[in-house]
Amino acid sequence: MTSYTLKALADELNATFRGDENITIDAIASMANAKPGQITFLADKKYQTQLQNCQASIVVLTEESLEHWNGAALIVANPYLTYAKLAQLLDTTPLPANDIAPSAVISSQAKLGKDVAIGANAVIESGVCLGDNVIIGAGCFIGKDTIIGKNTKLWANVSVYHNVQIGENCLIQSGTVIGSDGFGYANDRGQWIKIPQLGRVIIGNNVEIGASTTIDRGALDDTIIHNGVIIDNQCQIAHNDQIGEHTAVAGGVIMAGSLKIGKYCLIGGASVINGHMEICDKVTITGMGMVMRPISKPGVYSSGIPLQDNKIWRKTASLVLHIDEMNKRLKSLEKKLLQLAV
After folding, report:
1. Cα–Cα dist 231/261, whole Å
2. Rounded CA separation 73/136 (Å)
């Protein structure tokens, strides 16, 4: 277990500090549950009262909140960002694999960089190229001619189909499937004729993909996930989609095919986005959004009806069903009023 003094943390995190520079911590915890020997943080003023009973050895907070805490402190402009960096320093997550397991099946025609680790029962097919320090977890499948850049980690049971490109410093969680066939069929008098999906999936650098997410390969052109994108668990990214740099996609999002999403967008959980259209840069779609048309102006967009008491919801639904009738009556009244005014 790694431990840090207050002074060492201040130097590492570019923070100022108050208190004994030799105070030591070895773990991070919430304010409500922190114990001596641990560090915590205050990112929201509404939790400021918890400082009164906090037992942490060190608290990360802003200069403004310092007066509410009498103990040792790291003083920063953004405590939540500092928490993220602290969590990286104190991370105890094991690696997905160490060394190359004897049960791994690796083609003689695959190319492995330096210090590659491959877990038990993983399969690496011919033409695969793994960069330096790549880690492939147990039970993963890496299809023919796939390229994975240096320092990328795949947790257990990730399936990567053929001709996929994954960049450097990526993290892919368990159960994710990359490069599966897109939903492409032609109809011949009621019979579905499969269209082979001939494109690829290309994933940039510093991309993180959550557990059990599916990213389909392109039909003809490629599905592209650009640098710095983060995608949560159980998302569906359809064929030919493009997601711009540093966009964040929350859990359960469904994206139809041939969709182009810009840079620095935030897509709320359980949103559904229609295909064959474009969303511009810096768009936020709140949770459970249903996006049916292109978005060409940055901003925050929402849809859906918030949860209501069932009786109220039934009345609302009834009104919605009669909107067309109400609209016709309103137009009729407007016409009569205009006639009376004349």
Report:
1. 13
2. 40
The span from the CA of 263 to the CA of 227, in Å, is 10
At residue 96's C-alpha, the angle toward residues 252 and 203, to 5°, is 50
Structure tokens at 132: 């330096």
Q: Specify the pTM.
A: 0.92
DSSP assignment letter at 189: T
Q: Is the separation of the CB atoms in 99 and 117 below 8 Å? A: yes
Read off the pLDDT of residues 198-221 as tens digits, 9 standing for 90 and up. Answer: 999 999 999 999 999 999 999 999
Which helix (H) or strand (E) segment holds residue 81: the answer is helix 79-89
d(CA 247, CA 263): 6
Q: Say if CB 121 and CB 103 are below 8 A apart.
A: yes
Instruction: For residues 255 and 273, give the distance between their C-alpha atoms in angstroms, rounded to a whole number.
Output: 5
Q: Which fold has domain 105-301?
A: UDP N-Acetylglucosamine Acyltransferase; domain 1 (2.160.10)
CATH hierarchy code of domain 4-89: 3.40.1390.10
Backbone torsions φ then ψ of 273, nearest 5 degrees: -120, 125
Q: How do residues 159-195 score in pLDDT, each as one tens digit?
A: 999 999 999 999 999 999 999 999 999 999 999 999 9
Note if 239 is an active site residue. Answer: yes
What interhelical angle do 79-89 and 6-13 show, nearest 10?
Answer: 110
Same topology for domains 4-89 and 105-301, yes or no?
no
The one catalytic residue among 162, 239, 246, 322: 239
Classify strands 223-225 and 201-203 as parallel, antiparallel or unpaired: parallel
Structure token pair of residue 60 = 């990360």
- Collapsed DSSP state (helix, strand, coil) of residue 206: coil
Which of 84, 89, 72, 74 lies closest to 2, judged by CA? 89
Centre a 10 Å sphere on the Cβ of residue 339 and count the other Cβ atoms it contains.
8
Query: What residues form DSSP beta bridges with 201?
Result: 223
d(CA 73, CA 267): 35
Helix (H, G, I), strand (E, B) or coil at 310: helix
d(CA 289, CA 267): 8
Q: Domain-by-domain residue ranges, the chain?
A: 4-89, 105-301, 310-341
3-class DSSP state for residue 185?
strand
